[in-house]
Write a structure and sequence with these properties.
three-stranded antiparallel beta sheet; four-stranded antiparallel beta sheet; 13 strands; 10 helices; 19% strand; 47% helix; alpha+beta
Length: 378
């Protein structure tokens, strides 16, 4: 029996102590826990037939506990998760997002990794909270970003790696590696240093970023697959590729000079592409004209030869007539376009007759081809 429920004591009735009744509490008194437990036991005994220590009562309690135990196997997998069901610690199956069920603990348990989420790891830079700007700022990490190229130059490389868990490698991800983010970061940094160490600095700074990113991604994936990590590398993105801060101005001058060189080369190539076709066109035109002149000269020569042979055949038949005709045609061709003066060489003549405008007359009425002119007949 509690001390306060005793009817009296060595110091009289009521809750008294050896130094009197003591201070009395003000307000409602707290509930008595022993009374509450006693009332609950009485109600449970009234509900269960034969009392809760009977066979039926024990059976109901066991069934109720078994029902709660079986219902504890329901679980929900969120949209970015995959459920990994373990039976006595061994991976037996993987379930998709939604409401699922597994045998209750301790037979089966479930792990819920973020297998459908794309994770990002930054190497060479880190995000820090900036209270002054009310946001985050990027801070460079030189011990991660400074790398040595194949031609013994130092380059500052900041890049990010996008990775996710393989849908068929969730078990490997959970059981083969202890620190996934640290493993991916270490492998990515090592792979980037290896690829940069095999490359020259100039292609890295200008146009070989895509090749470098692809090579680093393949090397990271190959290394993680050899670990059995169950991780898929989605993409490698090079954020910043610069020389060290101490020599960046000199490198920028070199890049500007190379850009000017490329521009001048492009302009020269453009001019060559314009001039060379024109020269080739003129050359082809000259060749075609020469070929046409050649064909024309050959055709004329063949025609004159054929004409000569025909005249020669006629000449053999009538030499005198043919000779006189050739003479008259030749004189007509030679003197047909020249000015003519008529001279009377006789003694009775005056030496030179008055000038006749024969050229004007012949210009108005040109002589007919094959017939001698008036002056030629004299």
């Amino acid at each position: 029996m509690p001390w306060k429920n005793q009817g009296g004591g060595p110091w009289g009735s009521g809750p008294k102590g050896p130094w009197g009744s003591g201070p009395q509490p003000v307000g409602p008194r707290p509930p008595d826990l022993e009374d509450l437990l006693r009332r609950g036991q009485d109600r449970l005994q009234q509900i269960m037939p034969g009392g809760y220590f009977s066979g039926i009562g024990i059976t109901l309690v066991v069934l109720l506990i078994a029902a709660f135990w079986l219902l504890s196997g329901f679980f929900r997998v969120q949209s970015e998760e995959l459920g990994v069901v373990l039976r006595f610690g061994k991976h037996v199956r993987t379930v998709q997002p939604g409401l699922n069920y597994h045998l209750p603990y301790p037979i089966e348990t479930v792990l819920l990794p973020k297998a459908l989420r794309v994770n990002t790891i930054s190497i060479g830079m880190t995000l820090i909270d900036d209270p002054a700007r009310r946001g985050r700022s990027i801070r460079d990490v030189p011990e991660e970003s400074l790398m040595l190229t194949g031609d013994e130059n130092i380059v500052d490389v900041d890049f990010t790696v996008l990775w996710r868990i393989k849908p068929d490698g969730v078990g490997d991800f959970l059981f083969n590696i202890q620190n996934p983010e640290g493993t991916v970061k270490a492998v990515a940094e090592s792979s980037m240093r290896e690829v940069i160490g095999r490359s020259q600095i100039q292609p890295i700074l200008t146009g070989a970023r895509n090749v470098t990113e692809q090579g680093v991604q393949e090397l990271i994936q190959k290394t993680l697959d050899s670990y059995g990590a169950g991780i898929q590398i989605s993409q490698v993105q090079m954020q910043k590729v610069d020389p060290p801060a101490q020599v960046i101005d000199a490198f920028r001058d070199v890049q500007a000079a190379r850009a000017n060189l490329e521009q001048l080369q492009n302009e020269a190539q453009t001019y060559a592409n314009q001039v060379v076709p024109q020269a080739r066109g003129r050359s082809a035109q000259i060749l075609q004209a020469a070929e046409g002149y050649k064909e024309q000269a050959v055709a004329e020569a063949k025609g004159q030869s054929a004409r000569f042979l025909k005249v020669y055949e006629e000449y053999k038949k009538a030499p005198d007539v043919t000779r006189e005709r050739i003479y008259l045609e030749t004189m007509e061709r030679v003197l047909g376009g020249s000015e003519k003066l008529i001279y009377d060489g006789g003694q009775s003549g005056q030496g030179v007759v008055p000038y006749l405008p024969l050229s004007e007359l012949t210009a108005k009425r040109p002589p007919t081809t094959g017939q001698p002119s008036s002056g030629g007949s004299r």
